[in-house]
What we know:
This protein has 360 residues and is an alpha+beta fold. The protein has five helices and 18 strands. It has helices at residues 2-20, 30-41, 186-190, 218-229, 353-359; strands at residues 49-51, 54-73, 80-85, 88-97, 100-103, 106-107, 118-125, 129-137, 142-148, 161-163, 166-178, 194-196, 200-216, 241-262, 265-284, 291-310, 314-328, 332-351. The strands form two sheets. It has a 16-stranded antiparallel beta sheet that branches. Strands 1-12 form a two-stranded antiparallel ribbon. A hairpin with a 3-residue loop joins β16 and β17 (314-328). α1 (2-20) packs across α2 (30-41). 31% of the residues are buried.
Amino acid sequence: MRRLLSIVLLMVSLGAMAQDSVAVEEPKNELSWLRRTIRGFSYIDDNYVEPQHYNWSVMLQATYNYDYYRLSSTGANEQSVSFAPSPTFKIGPYFGWRWIFAGYTFDIKNVDVSDLKQEFDFSIYAAQVGADIYYRRTGSDYKIRNVTLGKNMDTEHFEDLSFDGLSVGITGFNVYYIFNHQRFSYPAAFAQSTMQKISCGSWMAGFGYMRNSLDFDYDKMQSTLQRATNKEVKLDTGLMFNSVKYYNVNASVGYAYNWVFARNCLFCSSLSLALAYKKSRGETADEDKTGFDFNNFNIDGIGRFAVVYNNNRWYAGASAIVRAYNYHNDRFAANNIFGNLNIYVGYNFGAREAYKKKRQ
């Protein structure tokens, strides 16, 4: 993953260098060909997209993270349990140089189990390519949000029960190519490094990988439900497992559209669907610790949404990324939705040389 990050950073930096360079007469040699290739890779139509005019930026950002998990048996006695931890809300300052942003956010709720949580989401938005890298360890502060145990079981009083018998780990990346990158700008919606001047859209295609681990204490689940009802609760055999590991390789296709609905105002909506090949290995809770595995194909989805005001000096807005993953076999199914919402305000300063010359 570190190698992937290095490659993507290099591609973006080359694109930034090409956009910042001033056209000069060059000898037709090997270096000149390389520079022309880099410029062509990052070329944008300035009738549609306005490039960034400043080198530096400061920003204050608030981030809201959300995670939802649903486990269900798929046999004749279908049961399901849905979990979600208390959402985390973080805020902090960021400082940027051109396309590089670094900052720090802290959890203002100071949840006791926050030290067990590890969340890292990193996205790069260049003119022609983009990448998402994410790493999450959820901790064990889940709450039961919904339970279905059969027609004769009242489950309303199960909602919002604390449950520390579930732990989820997610690691993965997505890389995608933007076809109409000359006229459509993802950075205008999610990185504020350009401005979309005329509404435009683009098709996208990409690939990705994800590894997901799930540890589930089904005995604790049964005892938690029994204490809440003072009745015997029996989970379906499809939910009697200790752990599951998933490996996911996918190819995706999607479409994104930037709508310029007013001067300096932009709304972006993007949806990608991925055909994912998934391989998993699970350990059941039987006395002999028998396991199970499956290989199949599922459809996953990634949605990106943003609303931005940007006058090239000041900018403010909100953006959200939502990911949905699904797994199923003949005994159980798992559905996971997670994402984050960012709300920010920032200021650009330190005009670039090209912009200074343009104003003169």
